[in-house]
Every structure is written in structure tokens, then in C-alpha cells.
Design goal:
The chain has a 4-stranded antiparallel β-sheet, with helices on one face. Strands 1-4-3 form a 3-stranded mixed β-sheet. The chain folds into 2 domains: 199 residues, no CATH class; 119 residues, no CATH class. The chain is globular, with a radius of gyration of 22 Å. It is built from 6 helices and 14 strands. A hairpin with a 2-residue loop joins β11 and β12. α2 crosses α3. It starts with 12 loop residues before the first helix and ends in a 5-residue tail after the last strand. The protein has 327 residues and is α+β, with helices and mostly antiparallel strands.
């Protein structure tokens, strides 16, 4: 399993502890630093021409103002700072940012290089980190107010949530190295753009998710993601929206150690009564987008997709949505 993809269902103790530290620290700006494989060949002819690749937290449930800070302020500033080193800053991948933070994924050419160009690699990352800190410091009031205002708007929002989307294919020129002669070239390639992506499936934003006591493991996982999980003294009695599994299709090969399960659903309303000890997760909180990803079944990273929650066709999903008109 790849620890870089262990954030919604932290299967490893290391991931859970890192997530706990991030949640406790509650950053306004966060940085993930990776390396990419230097030896990859594209089209039997080209290798990466960039020493540095930069992305940002641009999930569909991240506030647009925060995305704007990432794409229009910080990444261009890093591109300018790196220009003398002939590197390229790009914002064309989806990364992190669900807790409504200004977040970055920064990569340098490094995997399968051992210690080659070590000083250059370290220096490249240092320039990027320094630029982020200086940009945030120089425009402190604007950056902080943008994040704080966006966070409050996100908490108060009643807009539909997006839980499946797709990238947009388009052509453009990209800096590569021709391995036949070592020249730097700019061939036209097909980009898979996610800034922004296109929404495929949306759903009314729930006010609350109610979780029966037998699903306590789901509740524990949500707490580890930084969500506030309550245990109402008197349980729950009221109308909810429930989801019935219409189809369920499991992939023939594993992804991150799991056979993924793709489902379709139909919604209905009914009255339920849950005893004391059941769980309540408000969707009006800072980390609510983590609940959207984990609990909305059709999402590619949901607990249903990763077979943590297992429900057969024709059965009812045991996490209930309380929508605004119901609450």
C-alpha cells in the first residue's frame, strides 16, 4: 500500500498518527513533499523536462476562494522563484485540501536517482517552501481572512455536495527531454485537467449523518479524520434519507490492497429510531468534507468503495442522512 494514498481510510498506524497531528495543529497552510520517478519514459522518446512539479488542494469540495489562493497566488509565486533554475510550476492535479486549507503537493525529480543531484533537489524544495512562507507573510491579512471567511462559508453552506467528478481532456505544450539527443523540447500533449474538474454526481448536503452503534468502527475512523462525532444522550428518533444499494460491482484486481466496490443507489425516506449510544456527525463543521468523501457511497474513496462498509444489493446502507427539511 502507498502511504500517500492512505488518508481517508488510514490503514496504517503511521497514517493515523500523522493525521492526528495535522488535526491537532489545524494548519491554514499545509505542504506535502514527494519525489517523482526520474526514469519514466513517455512515448518511447521523452522524459520529464521539469525538475519540479507543483499541485494544490483542489478537490471539488474545497472552497473556490481557497483554490484561488493556491492557483492564482502561491503557485505563480513559486514558478517565478524557480524560473532561474529552468523548472516548471504546474497546477494540473488534484491533491489535498478537504479541511479547507491552502495546501500543496510539491514534487521533485528524485526516485531512482539515488543521491544524484542531491543538492539541486534539496535546493529546489527549499526555494518552494521559502516562497510559500514569504508569500503568506507578505500578504498575511489577505491570506488569513480568505481562509477564515471561506471556512465559515463552507460550514454554513447549503449547496449540493459533489462526490463524483471527471477530469477534462485538452491539448497543450509541455516541457520534456528528447532522450535521443538530450534536447529540451515542447511537444503537444494531451493534458488531463482537473482545475477545475466537472461534476458528475451531486447530492443535497445533509445536515447530519446518523450512525448506528454497530457501525462504531466507522465513527472511530471519522474521529481520526478530525471530525467531531457526538453520542446523543437520547439516541435519535425521526425522518431520515436512506440509500438502497441497487447494483454492486467489485473490481477484479486490487487497489491499495483492496478490491474496490462500485455501487449505485436509490434514495428514500423513512422514520427510524436509534438507541442511546448511536453516533451523530454534523455536516456543519470544518472537516465535513471528509465525511462527504467517506460516507457518500458513490465517491471513489468512500468506505463502501473500499469495502470497509459491506452491504449487498437490495440492502439499506446503515448510515442515514438527515437533510435540512428533515432536521
Amino acid at each position: 500500500m502507498d502511504g500517500n494514498r492512505d488518508h481517508i481510510n488510514p490503514a496504517h498506524e503511521q497514517s493515523r498518527k500523522i493525521k492526528g497531528v495535522v488535526t491537532q495543529w489545524n494548519p491554514r497552510i499545509s505542504i506535502v513533499m514527494d519525489e517523482y520517478t526520474a526514469s519514466t519514459v513517455f512515448g518511447e522518446r521523452y522524459k520529464h523536462g521539469a525538475d519540479s512539479l507543483i499541485s494544490g488542494g483542489i478537490n471539488s469540495n474545497t472552497h473556490l476562494d481557497i483554490m484561488g489562493q493556491v492557483l492564482n497566488k502561491f503557485i505563480p509565486a513559486m514558478g517565478d522563484a524557480l524560473q532561474d533554475a529552468v523548472t516548471e510550476a504546474r497546477a494540473d492535479r488534484n491533491a489535498i485540501g478537504l479541511p479547507q486549507t491552502i495546501s500543496f503537493l510539491m514534487e521533485v525529480r528524485g526516485i531512482r536517482l539515488a543521491d544524484q543531484h542531491f543538492h539541486s533537489r534539496v535546493g529546489t524544495n527549499l526555494v518552494k517552501i521559502q516562497t510559500i512562507l514569504e508569500t503568506a507573510s507578505d500578504d498575511f491579512d489577505s491570506v488569513l481572512s480568505t481562509v477564515e471567511d471561506a471556512l465559515q462559508e463552507f460550514i454554513d453552506s447549503d449547496e449540493d455536495i459533489i462526490f463524483t467528478d471527471s477530469s477534462v481532456r485538452e491539448t497543450g505544450n509541455f516541457t520534456l527531454i528528447d532522450i535521443n539527443n538530450g534536447s529540451v523540447v515542447h511537444p503537444e500533449i494531451e493534458f488531463i485537467r482537473t482545475t477545475p474538474s466537472e461534476a458528475n454526481l451531486t447530492r443535497t448536503r445533509a445536515e447530519v449523518y446518523t450512525i448506528p452503534l454497530p457501525c462504531f468502527d466507522d465513527a472511530n475512523k471519522l474521529e481520526n479524520l478530525g471530525l467531531e462525532v457526538e453520542k446523543p444522550e437520547h439516541g435519535f428518533n425521526g425522518t431520515v434519507e436512506t440509500l438502497i444499494i441497487e447494483t454492486s460491482q467489485v473490481t477484479p484486481s486490487q487497489c491499495e490492497g483492496t478490491y474496490l466496490n462500485t455501487v449505485t443507489t436509490t434514495a428514500r425516506e423513512r422514520n427510524i429510531m436509534l438507541p442511546p449510544g448511536s453516533f451523530r456527525v454534523s455536516a456543519k463543521q470544518k472537516n465535513a468534507a471528509m465525511a462527504f468523501i467517506a460516507l457518500e457511497l458513490e465517491n471513489i474513496d468512500s468506505y463502501m468503495t473500499f469495502n470497509i462498509t459491506q452491504v449487498d444489493e437490495g440492502e439499506e446502507y446503515p448510515v442515514f442522512r438527515v437533510c435540512r427539511e428533515q432536521s
